[in-house]
Design brief:
By secondary structure, the chain is mainly β. The protein has no helices and 12 strands. It is 0% helix and 46% strand. Strands 1-2-3-4 form a 4-stranded antiparallel β-sheet, with no helix packed on it. A 4-stranded antiparallel β-sheet has the order 5-6-7-8, with no helix packed on it. A 4-stranded antiparallel β-sheet has the order 9-10-11-12, with no helix packed on it.
Length: 180
């Protein structure tokens, strides 16, 4: 098992952490055999090395504060990728994938999906063939209806994602809570 030594809140230095959307993931992006930390607070994602003194490997600030992220091998190259979803200004959501978690560069591939103010994203093997897909859940604020989309990496067009399945679900007891 892993023991973390005290480090004076190293991961929190330089950030004002308050009631914002937060998410924490772990993945070995620098291929050193140790899981790295993927920390999202508000509109910023930082990826820290899993080895002390935990230096920042990559960082990116997005224009949206409603980010969600997932880790998995999207392009089937046996390296982990970071997928991020966030709302755009016109009721759409942007899905971006960063190869090997390098968020300091431009996304390796991306696509836009309709209806996405409140979103979630996962990566997993949900279809025949043994390849991972991106699964998104998008919903407009104050709506009881959500859309689930399966998005696949298009191996025939390098750098391309395509929506391969969509379904709508309705939950009449969904909260009318304007989550951001």
């Amino acid at each position: 098992y892993t023991t973390f030594e005290p480090r004076k809140e190293k991961l929190l230095q330089g950030n004002r952490w308050y009631a914002q959307r937060m998410q924490l993931l772990s993945a070995d992006f620098n291929a050193d055999g140790i899981g790295d930390f993927v920390v999202m607070v508000g509109n910023r994602i930082d990826i820290y090395s899993g080895i002390s003194p935990y230096p920042v490997l990559y960082t990116k600030t997005f224009t949206s504060t409603n980010l969600r992220m997932a880790v998995g091998d999207v392009d089937n190259d046996n390296n982990l990728d970071l997928a991020v979803i966030y709302p755009l200004a016109v009721d759409n959501a942007q899905v971006e994938v960063y190869a090997n978690g390098n968020i300091s560069s431009e996304p390796s591939f991306f696509t836009t999906v309709p209806i996405g103010n409140s979103n979630d994203i996962k990566i997993g093997n949900v279809k025949d063939g043994g390849k991972n897909s991106i699964i998104t859940l998008t919903r407009q604020n104050n709506s009881a209806s959500s859309n689930i989309r399966i998005i696949d990496y298009d191996e025939n067009t390098i750098g391309s994602l395509s929506v391969t399945a969509t379904t709508s679900i309705t939950n009449s007891s969904a909260p009318n809570d304007n989550i951001t």
